[in-house]
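[job 0412] stage=fold_complex status=start
inputs:
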Amino acid sequence: METFIQQILNGLVLGSMYALIALGYTMVYGVLNLINFAHGDVLMIGAMVGLSILKALDAHFPGMSGWLQLAIAILGAIPVAMLVNVLIERIAYRRLRNAPRLAPLITAIGVSILLQTFARMIWGLNPLPFPQLLSSEPIMLGSAVISQTQVLLLVLAGFSMVGLVFLVEKTKMGRAMRAVAENPRVAGLMGVDANRVVVTTFAIGAALAAVAGVMWGANYATIQFAMGTLPGMKAFCAAVLGGIGNIYGAMIGGIALGLIESLGAGYIGDLTGGFLGSHYQDIFAFIVLILVLTVRPSGIMGERVADRA
Amino acid sequence: MALLTFDTAHKPKQAYASMAILLAVMLVFPFVASQFGNSWVRILDMALLYIMLALGLNIVVGFAGLLDLGYIAFFAVGAYLTGLMASPQFAALLESVVNYSPALGEALVAMFGEDIRTNGIHLSVWAIVPLAAIMAGLFGALLGAPTLKLRGDYLAIVTLGFGEIIRIFMNNLNDPINFTNGPQGINLIDPIRIFGVSLAGEAGSKATVYVGGFGIPSVNAYYFLFLLLCIVTIFMTSRLQHSRLGRAWVAIREDEIAAKAMGINTRNVKLLAFSMGACFGGVAGAMFAAFQGFVSPESFSFTESIAVLAMVVLGGIGHIPGVVMGGVLLAALPEVLRHVVEPAQQALFGKVLIEAEVLRQLLYGLAMVVIMLYRPAGLWPSPIKEDRPSAALAKEEAEEAA
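[job 0412] stage=fold_complex status=done
writing structure:
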């Protein structure tokens, strides 16, 4: 039972990061029907920029409180990530909007490789330690523990998601986004500037990824140029699980995948009689993906999909 | 017009002449290259393996239009199969089985004989190659199955995930039953032996292979084997392309719904694309394992899948000569850069500013982005007449008349 509660907590923490990343995938997919393979690398850029800001702060203002440093790092990483993602859209995807399907997928992969290579040139090949900013004193919840960083992560993820829902459901821009997702041509006839909507979508996705990236670093204490690939892939699985194109689906799918992973890793040893161990954690996301695609391709919250060619 | 043409249907004389010239060049090439050191021939050997991979991937991506981002997994399947079936590794596997469940272990020993307990299994290349092809083909079908009804983008992610899963298994399947020997990989894989001649050279021959009194370096022997395999692959894929099946693939790529309406069984045809593409990957993997003598999970990372994809994209998606050229460029260029750019930087700036590995990655990334944006059919695109014979012929005749 103790491990169960602990694994649930871990799963929530992991899941809220997946949810933040999955939102970026699902929003872009909703508007453009495109998988932005470089999204995981935008997360990495966010984390790297955050780390650089932290280093600068440490050099110029030693003794600043950890909370403030983290806040500045996140606020600094967001615009950089936004700029990167908007540039990606402008350079790599916009020209290909009406090209055959394979073309933007291949450029997306290419952009992902390029971002990683640039990051490797700037920040180096080796994993970088991410400073411990908040007190490492764990908070006890019964027998389970959760760190302050993880609590902050949960809170931030919650606020970001509420903010996103407000933006999509209540503002004019949100209505334009929903209109473009529904039918870009008709939305254009109604006076919606589709390009502006697309740029906004990429920017919002990047901001969420930057938050997730900095918090990823703060939680796992080490970051590297290739760190974005695996979370990116898993977050996409989460988006599919929730129903791609649907922002509520991405949130639910992200949390669900986090729980599946951490419970799976916690119990796979018992389930298989010790044959498989917790180092198989990474395969759950893909098994979930394959199951969802076979059984219910529209995901938990999705309506139409799959064959919308 | 191009200096070399491979258009056998319309310009047969020119096409066969250019093939003959190329073949002659390829046959002499290793002897020239080995004057500069055997490491250059080794690079050529690897380039040939990459070309085989690129040609296999071209069936999936180029002909059928299905984006496979985990193609290297099939390469890995072939390589690990060879590692298990042609090295002492099976003895280690058996030992772990005996520890885990003695009854099963005894049954295996009874089945294969006492000898494998100490020596493992050592199948000959004639058994390994078909086995690798079948095994990889099965994996290909397995992977294609869940995504057949879905759009291409999902396929991309599933294949990406599959590549990752295979890597996780390679890294971890050493306990409790030792299939892959984990991150250390499998060592002491038998070199290829054809009619009793080992391509690695006999013991004490300083890696020289003697055929009928002539001695050639081992790397050259492998070069000729891989060249032969490449030619076979080119022949098979080009025959496939012009077969009924190949036309069905192209039809699916261009418009799946229309293809279905024409009576093509899209499910089976797509599955065939997957498993046939995978077969070539598996054979290339088997060759790689025997050539290297060891396999480890590091050789099968996501980057390698991307490298093969970049070759297909750069050369010309769906056009066999283009794909071969892409393979040559992207497999050989980084190695040349490694030997040229790093010393050049050393000489100019006194240190290496951009490592060759980084340049290689840049090259792959740029190849994919720039080609897709400005030249989506690749550097050496397929002539349109391949898909629409009559229209293209008419156009060509009009050009010649003018």
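[job 0412] summary: The longest strand of chain B covers residues 208-211.
[job 0412] exit 0
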